[in-house]
Amino acid sequence: MIKQIVAVTSMNLRSLPQRLGTAWVIVIGIAVTVAVMVSVLAMAAGFQRTLKGTARADRAIVLRAGSQAELESTIDRQNAQTIMDAPGVRKDEAGRPIASAEAVVIVALPQKKDGADANVTLRGVGPNAMRLRPEMHLIAGRMFRPAVRELIVGKSAVAQFKGLELGSRIAFRDSEWTVVGIFESGGDAHESELQGDVETVLSAYRRNGFQSVTAMLDSAAAFDRFKGALTTDPTLKVGVQREADYYAAQSRNLSKLLNLLAYFVGGIMALGACFGALNTMYTAVSTRTREIATLRAIGFGGMPIVVSVLVESLLLAIVGSVIGSGAAWVFFNGNTVNTLGAGFTQVVFHLTVTASLLVSGVFVACTIGMLGGLLPAVRAARLPIATALRAS
């Protein structure tokens, strides 16, 4: 049987150049399906990677109890100081807590791609913010000065929004703010932000409270001690989360939507590609009816015929998946886009075509090829020999 399978399959593949037109129908249909599915899933992967990259195991974020995002939270000054002085918070050389009580507000900035206004996060940070987030470092300009309306902006924000170049002046809240520095932080969510001195931001927005407190802990294991001290303090009503848990929750809804969209649209296209493969393989089999009948008449079994048709269909599907995955990689991987995050502000991220997505594309393509080739293969093997030999 193995010799028969090899012989019939080899004969089928050698005849492929005579059927290039019909073969390309399968290849192109599957390539488009895989490219669309992988590119949409790359958006979800890139968004998740950006938010997950914002977190460290030894950092914790504190919000008002019941708040799901920073913009929903308020923490007064006394409580903010209590949080920063809690056990488990790392201290610097001067004995000050490595923590930052922060104000988070929204400013409208025009996008470079179309000029439409988008919500961008302006984060007021404390004096120890750079120690708190060592992944952040300036790549141009200098740090903002306290009590002066100066900003540093993330590299991703500069790429997506107008008017954020070094030295630019941004008008909001009846005043002008000067961009004095540009920073990068490994492509995380903070690279989509504008940052300034927290007291200056609060003064400009006529506020006296913070939205969150982020603290560097002595170690990742100190989280339980830190959380226990805050949640058992009767003067506080706060929720304490590891940074990783907080940012995972922020990305969950959009990731679910993108995954649903990818599989829904990809599923519809896969169904179309499957029908295309089915029709093409039926045509390929029908043009070789007498040839297949002759093989069976001289002793070839039905199983080698089935396997040979399935192998042809799978090989065409794999070629389609390679083309589709390659197109997704070339045209989408690394592209910078921005979308509305959970806090109704724009998050800039890079599309990420991962190895697992490419494997998923190959799996989908092989499934389409298998389903598209199975029925024609069975029909070819079950057609009565006498009837097939009389076929024109």
Structure description:
The protein has helices spanning 2-14, 20-52, 77-84, 129-132, 155-160, 198-204, 223-231, 243-286, 289-297, 302-332, 355-382, 385-389; strands spanning 59-64, 99-110, 117-125, 137-141, 150-154, 169-172, 175-184, 194-197, 212-216, 238-242, 336-340, 346-350. The radius of gyration is 30 Å and the shape is elongated. Helix content is 50%, strand content 19%. A hairpin with a 6-residue loop joins strand 2 and strand 3 (117-125). Helix 2 (20-52) runs antiparallel to helix 11 (355-382). Strands 1, 2, 3, 4, 5, 6, 7, 8, 9 and 10 form a ten-stranded mixed beta sheet that branches. The longest helix has 44 residues, at 243-286. With 392 residues, the chain is α+β, with helices and mostly antiparallel strands.
List the helices and strands and how they pair.
Elements: H1 2-14, H2 20-52, E1 59-64, H3 77-84, E2 99-110, E3 117-125, H4 129-132, E4 137-141, E5 150-154, H5 155-160, E6 169-172, E7 175-184, E8 194-197, H6 198-204, E9 212-216, H7 223-231, E10 238-242, H8 243-286, H9 289-297, H10 302-332, E11 336-340, E12 346-350, H11 355-382, H12 385-389
Parallel strand pairs: 3-8, 5-7
Antiparallel strand pairs: 1-9, 1-10, 2-3, 2-9, 4-7, 5-8, 6-7, 11-12
Helix pairs in contact: 1-10, 2-8, 2-10, 2-11, 8-11, 10-11
Count of helix runs: 12
Low-confidence region ranges: none
Largest sheet: 10 strands, mixed
The whole-number mean of residue pLDDT values reads 84
Distance between the termini: 29 Å
- In total, how many beta strands? 12
- As a percent range, the share of strand residues is 15-25%
Given the helix and strand composition, which structural class is it?
alpha+beta
The rough form would be described as elongated
